[in-house]
Amino acid sequence: MPTSCGSGTRSPTASDPHALGLRRPGRRDRRPDVLAARRALEEVIRPELVSAVEQLTGCKVKALMSVHNLEPDLAAEVFVLDRPVAAAAEDHQEGPRDA
Description:
single chain, four-stranded antiparallel sheet, elongated
């Protein structure tokens, strides 16, 4: 999964990110249902995503934004962090800062 990095952000992207059952209702009239299912799943796993990014970077996640596309099948997550990861690496022994 490619990840682009900016000052205080991490943006992983995935192609073909979801199970066949969510990808293949096959008809255009089902697209709103597919996107709604993806958003619902994302809300369930959101705390785990935030926790993992905070542990890996040593930063606090200020915001998590997501977008989905069906054709082509892509998803992107944007994690807005409280500081650049390079700065966090220097502070990592102290753990994540409170925002």
